[in-house]
Amino acid sequence: MSEFITKYFRGEKRESYLFISAGFLFIILSYYGFFVSQEDLHNGAAIPFGLIGLIQVVVGANIAYRTDNQLIGLLKLFSEDFKAFEDAEKSRMGSVMKNFTWIKRIELGLFLVGVLLLLLAMNGTISTIMLGVGIGLLIQCALMLVFDLFAELRAREYLREMDRVQRKL
Fold it and tell me: Where are the domains of the chain?
């Protein structure tokens, strides 16, 4: 009956490794943009690549680090006292779902800033460096949105499974 817990946390850990990998890739691209390339476009893209890449590594590492212990504790609680498990997890997941709303708003906002910078570049009103910033924002924010949408879908499924188990008890 507790398989849904393991499935959810395995998915979280798997995605955290993708997050870390993407972060390191973008940090490398940022390094290239700042220190190797002489192109203004690359210099501009290096800013969001590096900053958001660092966030990806830190967040991914945090999730990967805590997931195993969290899973062990929750499986133990599930087997000992389902009601306590359900109360704790529904409260935690309520916060997680609210955070997804805010995170998506920020990501969409930054994505739109990237679109605006691209539109301004088409009119010749901004520098090539700022065009690079816009392209970097578009790429990183699109990727972050995809990662977060998968995580949100996994969280919704986790909550549905919890309700299904509760109805069986």
Answer: 3-168
